[in-house]
Write a structure and sequence with these properties.
about 230 residues, mainly alpha, 2 strands, about 0% strand, elongated, binds zinc ion
C-alpha cells in the first residue's frame, strides 16, 4: 500500500490509478481549491451538542422534582438557546467537512457541501440526505468497525427523539415518561454526534494538512526550478 498524492489515502501500489479517488499516480497533483480547518469548530460543536444533550435531560428532571415554573421556564429557554447555537455550529462544521472531502477526492461526493446544509430544511429530504452527507465525511476518515453502528445510533435516536418532541408539542399535557424518553433519545444522539464530530475532524485535519504541505512543497520546487 502507498499513500495516494491526490487524496492522501492508502491505495494499492500495483495499479496506475488510485482506487479511492480515481486519479492516476503520475498525474500532476491538482490544487485543492478552498478548504477549511475543522479542528477548532469540531471542538466547539461537540461541546455545545453535549451541553444540549445533558441540559435537556437536566431540565426534565428539574421539572419533575422541583416545583418552580419560573425556574423551569428559564432553564428551558437556556436549553433552546443552546440548541440554536449547536445547530448553527453543527451545520458550519458539516459544510466545512464536506467541502474538504470534495477538495481531497476531486468532487466525487454524492452530497455537495451546500446541499448537505440545505437538505436539513427541506421536509422529507431531511430524513435521509443529512445522514448521507454526514456518513460520506465519516467513512472517509474512520475505518474502524464501530463507525457505522455509532452513526446509525446517532441518526435513529436523533430522528425518533425529534419526532417524539414534535408529537408532545401537540399534546395538552405530555406525561413525564414521554418527556424523559424524548430527552434521553436526544441525549444519546448528542453524545454520539459529539464523539463522531471530534474523531472525524481530528483525522480529516491531519489528512488536509498533509495534502496542503505536499502542494506547498511542490509549488516551492516549481519556483526554484523555474528561476
Ligand atoms: Zn487517491
Amino acid at each position: 500500500m502507498v499513500l495516494c498524492p491526490h487524496c492522501e489515502r492508502l491505495t494499492t501500489a500495483a495499479s496506475d490509478a488510485c482506487f479511492r479517488c480515481g486519479s492516476g499516480r503520475l498525474e500532476p497533483v491538482r490544487s485543492l481549491g478552498r478548504t477549511y480547518s475543522v479542528r477548532k469548530v469540531a471542538v466547539y460543536t461537540a461541546l455545545l451538542i453535549d451541553l444540549v444533550a445533558l441540559g435537556g435531560l437536566a431540565a426534565v428532571f428539574y421539572g419533575t422534582r422541583v416545583h418552580d415554573p419560573m425556574g423551569l421556564a428559564a432553564f428551558e429557554s437556556i436549553v433552546v438557546l443552546e440548541e440554536v447555537v449547536a445547530m448553527g455550529l453543527f451545520l458550519n462544521w458539516l459544510y466545512r467537512s464536506v467541502r474538504n472531502i470534495e477538495a481531497l477526492t476531486n468532487g466525487q461526493e454524492s452530497v455537495s457541501a451546500a446541499w448537505s446544509v440545505g437538505s436539513w430544511f427541506v421536509p422529507g429530504c431531511n430524513l435521509i440526505v443529512p445522514l448521507r452527507a454526514v456518513w460520506q465525511v465519516i467513512v472517509e476518515e474512520l475505518s474502524s468497525t464501530w463507525a457505522f453502528p455509532v452513526t446509525v445510533t446517532w441518526w435513529t435516536s436523533f430522528v425518533s427523539g425529534s419526532l417524539l418532541n414534535v408529537w408532545m408539542w401537540f399534546q395538552i399535557e405530555p406525561t413525564p415518561a414521554e418527556m424523559v424518553v424524548a430527552k434521553a433519545l436526544l441525549a444519546i444522539a448528542g453524545l454520539t454526534a459529539g464523539w463522531l464530530v471530534l474523531h472525524t475532524s481530528w483525522r480529516q485535519q491531519i489528512r488536509l494538512d498533509r495534502a496542503l504541505a505536499r502542494r506547498a512543497a511542490l509549488a516551492h520546487k516549481r519556483v526554484r526550478t523555474s528561476s
